[in-house]
Design a protein that fits this description.
- The protein is mainly alpha-helical and about 100 residues long.
- Helix content is about 35%, strand content about 10%.
- The radius of gyration is 18 Å and the shape is extended.
Length: about 100
C-alpha cells in the first residue's frame, strides 16, 4: 500500500516560490510538530506516535496537495539487482537487507 502526498512542483511554487514539493512536504511536518508542541506545552518530549496525527495533518494539509493511498504489488526487489550484484533475500522481499542502500 502506498500512501502519500502528490504535490506537484507547480502547486508547491504557488504556495512557496523557489521551493520544491519535497521541501514543502518536509517543512510542513516540522511546522505541524511546532504547532503541536505549542498547543501541548505540558507534554514534554514525545515520540511522533504520541502526537495527534489528525491535528498534524490539519496543519499540513494546505501544503501537501492531494493525499492519496493506492494498493500496489511493488516490493523492494522490483528491478533488482541493478548493474552490480547485491546481497538480496529473494525468499522474503521485505527483509531489511533488501531495503538497505549501500
Amino acid at each position: 500500500y502506498w500512501y502519500g502526498s502528490q504535490l506537484s512542483l507547480a502547486e508547491a511554487r504557488k504556495l512557496a516560490p523557489y521551493q520544491n514539493a519535497t521541501g514543502l512536504q518536509v517543512t510542513s511536518a516540522v511546522l505541524a510538530g511546532m504547532v503541536w508542541a505549542l498547543e501541548n506545552p505540558a507534554a514534554g518530549i514525545v515520540e511522533a506516535d504520541e502526537m495527534d496525527y489528525r491535528r498534524c495533518l490539519e496543519v499540513q494539509s494546505p501544503y501537501l496537495g492531494p493525499v492519496r493511498g493506492y494498493y500496489t504489488d511493488w516490493t523492494p526487489l522490483d528491478n533488482r539487482p541493478g548493474l552490480f550484484p547485491e546481497d538480496l533475500d529473494k525468499d522474503d522481499p521485505w527483509q531489511f537487507r533488501n531495503i538497505l542502500v549501500r
